[in-house]
Structures are given as structure tokens and as C-alpha cells.
Q: What sequence folds into this?
């Protein structure tokens, strides 16, 4: 195992703990926005997609696959954050 | 590269703070916006990555993706939110699988296989493809079920579990082949196909009412797929965000399973509700006996004379689009000095928290929405519990009848209210295919008909009192 891998695993394990801590405090009322919002965050794979789609000067198989990945991840990110915002704005206290 | 990584760290912090702010409806919109800013920071930082040389495909992808995403986010109906989230989960997972596939393809062409693809990279690559593809195709099936493009009933056939198990083993075996000889493209395509088929076949046997669990689980998978892609690229932003989402999905999955008193294994492999007709045997005949029904006008008299009315909405209310009428009725009753509350079961609706969003859309203030644990002690004091399109989550058999398929499931104690009104089209059993003992109870009054129509008539009658 390389140093990089150990570091990555360390970050992974710690992030899982942070995730459990933060998310268990979200009340059931907001579980749907939590899901769509966290879903938008899982579109973080867009970073990998961008690198894959922009790595080669000439278009090859890897670029096309990267392009598909960019489209899928962008729909996920943009749609996810926007729809979460739309939902959250509906939650109002009694006037 | 150092700047980029620091910006990734900033993005990760914004995600965590954003999720933390989701703990209250007041701070939640700002939290979501912070997370979105975090994503923007991460995306812009990536554009400066040393490996990014040409931008045409990137820009094309961003434009197309943003347009599609924005269109659906603005136009989707709140009732259709579960399908929408299912599709988005699938796209996120699919995105990760495509990134891994592209990495693989890039490695084959550029390195000419002269540089060994180490296990550090190939193992997470296999996992990305496996989890990502299962998430993509599984989510599409979940979407089709929720959208009723295919039947919401569990689809069962002979040797189902065996076939799925074989597919899983085959995928893992192909994964091992890829790790051992990274140049075997055939194994890679085999993995893509096996995992895609596995995703379809593993969601097919799961019934419509169990979709909250499936969506939560797929949510978790999409995070894990992003996470393993992070290992492929040694990208910490992906690892951190992926694990946050993975954890979130797992927590929601657990909550949903607990609320149905079922294990995850039972949800995934039990094909619950497939044996529907079997459960409506002698109990079904019994239920026909002592049902009392009343008119909307009878209901109005009772409601108007109450001190506390608790509304118990289920997915049926949303299907009938009755939530606005319910809110109007509640407002009318409040003006006449009646206290109104809403009791929300954790699995009401088709995804976690779905009912709350539907009621929020109908302008019901969130401080009138109560969770099961909060509201159950109030039912004995309630003059009327009005059940609208909810069924299994109110069935007292879950408490008492050990032979009932839903025995042990935590329920809303509506039967303890002085009067229970059930708004329902007919006496048909719910998704679990179980008769509801509530309907034959002494204090229960059935009001038959379309929920929206019935409530509109109740509103009329209350106004005339």
C-alpha cells in the first residue's frame, strides 16, 4: 500500500464519521430535501468527469466517455441543488 | 495543484457546514446554497487542473447537463419527487461509472499497457463500475415503478435470488480478472454488462411501498460510487463528499427499515406484498361486517364540535391531490377554535420526508407537522383523528395480531382517538395487502369517496353550520 492510499483511506474513514454525526441531526421533516441535497453532493464525481473529458487534445474513446460522465453528473448537481432549494423555500412557519 | 487541493478542502467544508444547516427548516435553504457554492468552487478549481487541456467537451457537457437539470428541477411535481431523486441518484452513480470507464480506456490507449495498472487504482475502478452501474440501472427501474411505467407490484419469478447471486459473483469474479490482468477489455465489458443487469434484476422484486428504502439505499450507493472514483483519481474531494452521501443514505435506509419493522434483507429479498390476495382470506370477510359509514355532513358536525383534530395523511392524499383542501379545512377549523395537528409516519409517502414536502407545498406551517413519537401521546386526547389515504401505518393489528404480516411495525395510534374518521375510496387493503382492523372498530366512521371531493364537501358543510 502506498502513502497516498493510506492517506485516502484515513480521509474516507474520518469523513464517514463526520457524515454520520452531521446527518443524524437532520429532523425527519427535512429528510426529502436532505436526500436530494446530499444527492446533488454525490454529483461531485463531476470533478473526475471534467478531467476525463478534457485530458486529451484529440477526441478519443476516453474523452467521449468523459463527456457522457460530465453530462450525467451535471444534471445530478444542477438539478439536485435547484430542486432542493425549491423545496426548502416551501417550508414556512405559521404566519 | 496545491491551490486546487486547498479549494477542494474549502468545498468539502462548505458541504459539511451546508448539511449541518439542514438540521432546521430555518437555516436549511442557506445550507443548501452553501453546498452549491462549494460545488461551484470545486468545479472551477478543477478547470485549472494540470491534466485539463481542452475545454470543448467539458463546456458542451456542462451546458447540456445544466439545461436538463434546471428544466426538471423547475417543472417536477412534488408528488413526483421520489422518481426525480431516483433518477438523479442513478445519474450520479452512472457518472461515476463512466469516469472509471474513461480512466480505464485512457490507461489502455495512452500507456499502451506498458505501465502496470496497480491494484491501488484497479480495485476502486472495478468498484466504481460495479456500484455505479448497479445504481444507474437500479434507479431507472425504481423510477419506472414510481412513475407507474411498469407495475409497482414486486415482480417475482423462479430462481430469482439464485440468478441475482450468480450475477453478483460473476461481477466480482470479472473484477478480480481485471485487477489481475488489467488489459483484458473483455472482462471489463463483461463487468459493465453484468453490473447493469444486476441493478435491474435486484430492484424488480421490490414493491412500490418499499421504495423509500430502495431510494435511500441507492442514494447511499451513488455516494459510495463517487467515493471509489475518488480512490481511482486520488481525489480527496470525491472521497469526502462520497462518504458524506454514503453515510446519509445508510442512515435514511436504517430509519426507513426501522419504521417498517423490517430488516434490510427482508425489504430487498422478501418481495413484500407479492402474496397480496393470500392475506385477504377470512379476515377480509370479517372486515365487511361491522363497518359504519357517514356522510361528509356528519363528519363536519363532529369536526366543528372538536377541541383537537389530528390529520393523518398518507400517500393516498397526495394521489388525490387533496393536500390543499386539507389545509383549507384545517384553517377553517382553527378559525372556529379547533386545534389542528398533522401526524406524519416516517414511511408516509414514497420517500423519507415526502409527506412533509407535500404539506409544505400546500402551505401547511411546519410547526404543525409532528413525527410519530411526538404525536402518539396526543391521540387519546384527540376528539377526531382524520385518516386521509393512509392505511397500513394506522392498522392496530401491527400492535396486537402476531399473525399479521405487519405485526411489530410502529404505527400511529389513531385508534385511541375518540372518533376516527377514515377517508377512503373503498375497503380495499393497502399496499401490504393486509386488512385494516381499524375500519371495523366501534369508534370508526368511514367516509367513502375521493379524498379531495369529500374534504371539499366537509368544508362546505362546516361553513353552513
A:
Amino acid at each position: 500500500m502506498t502513502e497516498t492510499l493510506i492517506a485516502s483511506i484515513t480521509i474516507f474513514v474520518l469523513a464517514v464519521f463526520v457524515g454520520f454525526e452531521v446527518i443524524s441531526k437532520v429532523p425527519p421533516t427535512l429528510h426529502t430535501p436532505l436526500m436530494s441535497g446530499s444527492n446533488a453532493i454525490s454529483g461531485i464525481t463531476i470533478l473526475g468527469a471534467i478531467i476525463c473529458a478534457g485530458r486529451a487534445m484529440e477526441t478519443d474513446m476516453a474523452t467521449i466517455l468523459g463527456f457522457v460522465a460530465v453530462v450525467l453528473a451535471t444534471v445530478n448537481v444542477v438539478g439536485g441543488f435547484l430542486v432542493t432549494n425549491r423545496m426548502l423555500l416551501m417550508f414556512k412557519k405559521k404566519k | 495543484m496545491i491551490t486546487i487541493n486547498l479549494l477542494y478542502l474549502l468545498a468539502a467544508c462548505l458541504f459539511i457546514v451546508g448539511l449541518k444547516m439542514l438540521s432546521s427548516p430555518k437555516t436549511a435553504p442557506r445550507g443548501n446554497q452553501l453546498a452549491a457554492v462549494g460545488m461551484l468552487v470545486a468545479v472551477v478549481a478543477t478547470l485549472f487542473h494540470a491534466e485539463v487541456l481542452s475545454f470543448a467537451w467539458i463546456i458542451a457537457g456542462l451546458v447540456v447537463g445544466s439545461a436538463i437539470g434546471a428544466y426538471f428541477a423547475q417543472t417536477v411535481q412534488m408528488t413526483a419527487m421520489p422518481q426525480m431523486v431516483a433518477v438523479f441518484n442513478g445519474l450520479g452513480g452512472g457518472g461515476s461509472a463512466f469516469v472509471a470507464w474513461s480512466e480505464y480506456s485512457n490507461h489502455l490507449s495512452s500507456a499502451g499497457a506498458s505501465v502496470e495498472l496497480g491494484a491501488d487504482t484497479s480495485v476502486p475502478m472495478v468498484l466504481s463500475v460495479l456500484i455505479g452501474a448497479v445504481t444507474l440501472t437500479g434507479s431507472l427501474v425504481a423510477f419506472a415503478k414510481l412513475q407507474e411505467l411498469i407495475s409497482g407490484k414486486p415482480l417475482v419469478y423462479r430462481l430469482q435470488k439464485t440468478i441475482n447471486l450468480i450475477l453478483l459473483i460473476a461481477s466480482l469474479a470479472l473484477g478480480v480478472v481485471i485487477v489481475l490482468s488489467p488489459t483484458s477489455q473483455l472482462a471489463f465489458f463483461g463487468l459493465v454488462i453484468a453490473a447493469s443487469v444486476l441493478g435491474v434484476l435486484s430492484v424488480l422484486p421490490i414493491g412500490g411501498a418499499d421504495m423509500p428504502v430502495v431510494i435511500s439505499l441507492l442514494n447511499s450507493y451513488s455516494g459510495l460510487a463517487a467515493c471509489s472514483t475518488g480512490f481511482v483519481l486520488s481525489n480527496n474531494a470525491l472521497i469526502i463528499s462520497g462518504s458524506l452521501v454514503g453515510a446519509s443514505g445508510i442512515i435514511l435506509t436504517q430509519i426507513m427499515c426501522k419504521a417498517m419493522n423490517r430488516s434490510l434483507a427482508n425489504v430487498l429479498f422478501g418481495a413484500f406484498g407479492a402474496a397480496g390476495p393470500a392475506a385477504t382470506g377470512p379476515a377480509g370477510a370479517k372486515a365487511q361486517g361491522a363497518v359504519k359509514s357517514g356522510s361528509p355532513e356528519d363528519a363536519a358536525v363532529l369536526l366543528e364540535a372538536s377541541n383537537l383534530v389530528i390529520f393523518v395523511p398518507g400517500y393516498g392524499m397526495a394521489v388525490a391531490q387533496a393536500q390543499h383542501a386539507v389545509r383549507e379545512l384545517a384553517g377553517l377549523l382553527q378559525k372556529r377554535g379547533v386545534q389542528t395537528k398533522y401526524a406524519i409516519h416516517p414511511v408516509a409517502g414514497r420517500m423519507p420526508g415526502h409527506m412533509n414536502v407535500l404539506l409544505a407545498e400546500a402551505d401547511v406551517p411546519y410547526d404543525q407537522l409532528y413525527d410519530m413519537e411526538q404525536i402518539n401521546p396526543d391521540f387519546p386526547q384527540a376528539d377526531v383523528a382524520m385518516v386521509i389515504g393512509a392505511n397500513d401505518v394506522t392498522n392496530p393489528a401491527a400492535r396486537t395480531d402476531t399473525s399479521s404480516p405487519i405485526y411489530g411495525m410502529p404505527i400511529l395510534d389513531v385508534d385511541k382517538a375518540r372518533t376516527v374518521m377514515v377517508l377512503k375510496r373503498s375497503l380495499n387493503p393497502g399496499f401490504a395487502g393486509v386488512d385494516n382492523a381499524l375500519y371495523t372498530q366501534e369508534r370508526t366512521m368511514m367516509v367513502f369517496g375521493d379524498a379531495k371531493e369529500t374534504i371539499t364537501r366537509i368544508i362546505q358543510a362546516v361553513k353552513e353550520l
In short: The two ends of chain A are 59 Å apart (CA to CA). The mean pLDDT of chain A is 92. Residues 28-89 of chain A form one domain. Residues 61-88 of chain A form the longest helix (28 residues).
